[in-house]
From TrEMBL:
GO terms for molecular function: ATP binding; FMN adenylyltransferase activity. Catalyzes the transfer of the AMP portion of ATP to flavin mononucleotide (FMN) to produce flavin adenine dinucleotide (FAD) coenzyme. Homodimer. This is FAD synthase. One of its GO terms (biological process) is FMN metabolic process. Residues 8-70 form the DUF357 domain. Residues 85-214 form the Cytidyltransferase-like domain.
Length: 226
């Protein structure tokens, strides 16, 4: 793990060193930073990854300090966060949905696609209670979600448009991981497909949209008090 980190730091440092702009009075410190970068490479190649991490951090510190006092200009390369696609109905949002989205957010920025009303009718044999735009709005307002859209007619087309790095499937979604990957590969998109292993809930929670609807029908349908 520390070897992986040291290699990443070394790569970033090399990128900065090759593009850095600095004023003449900073040259001594920049040279020192360069020597620490060379040391990092040396320690990494000899398998001493802990020391490589120390020398890399020292070089980073020197360069950051120069930048802070306005004697050098450069940018650290930022790693792009992964785009994690989650598709689903999200009719009546419950803690199981929140757990799913929380788990997905550990892999990157979560992009949700809510199923269109017609899709829900077709797949569940009943329409959703909540209209598609409202489902999109509510899910898109949850803290684990970066963006939310209403789905199109063709799910594969939708995924291709949004270009995720990962598709995160729910525990009971019927999509086959390998088929999904293959369909997308045919359209030129390489994605990782990850599935949440088990459903979750909070203690005493009601973690199914259908069960919530059933409870409302059973307990509130005489209209009393409404
Ligand atoms: C990869 C993927 C892509 C999807 N794309 C769409 C889409 O374009 N349009 C749509 O109506 N629903 C889309 N959905 C939602 C599915 O239709 C949804 O999973 C289906 O309604 C099953 O319901 P559930 O997952 O809520 O149980 C997508 C879901 C996944 C996993
Ligand atoms: N308890 C749960 N824990 C984790 N994920 C869940 C849970 N319940 C649903 N999901 C996931 O949330 C996504 C959206 O599912 P959906 O909106 O159909 O919820 P649902 O409560 O299962 O609905 P229904 O009860 O009508 O089948 C799917 O990926 C599904 O697997």
């Amino acid at each position: 793990m520390s070897c992986e980190r040291a290699a990443k730091y070394l790569n970033n440092l090399k990128g900065v060193i090759s593009n850095i702009k600095y004023s003449p009075e900073a040259s001594e410190v920049v040279d020192l930073a360069k020597r620490y970068v060379e040391d990092t490479e040396y320690y990494l190649n000899s398998g001493d990854c802990e020391t490589a991490l120390v020398t890399a951090s020292y070089a980073e510190g020197l360069l950051d300090a120069l930048r802070m006092i306005g004697k050098a200009e450069f940018e650290w390369k930022r790693e792009r966060r992964k785009r994690v696609f989650v598709g689903g109905t999200f009719d009546i949002v419950h803690p199981g949905h929140v757990e799913l989205l929380k788990e997905a957010s550990k892999l990157g920025d979560v992009i949700v696609v809510v199923a269109r009303d017609e899709t829900v009718k077709r797949l569940k044999g009943r329409g959703p209670v909540v209209p598609q735009e409202q489902r999109r709005y509510v899910v898109g307002s949850l803290k684990y979600v970066k963006e939310a859209y209403v789905g199109g007619e063709d799910p594969i087309e939708t995924v291709v448009k949004l270009k995720p790095d990962v598709i995160f499937l729910g525990p009971d979604q019927t999509w086959d991981e390998e088929e999904l990957k293959e369909e997308l590969r045919k359209r030129g998109l390489e994605v990782e497909v990850v599935r949440m292993k088990e459903k979750r809930c909070i203690p005493g929670g009601l973690c199914s949209s259908s069960l919530i609807i059933k409870k409302v029908l059973e307990e509130f349908c005489d209209g009393e008090g409404y």
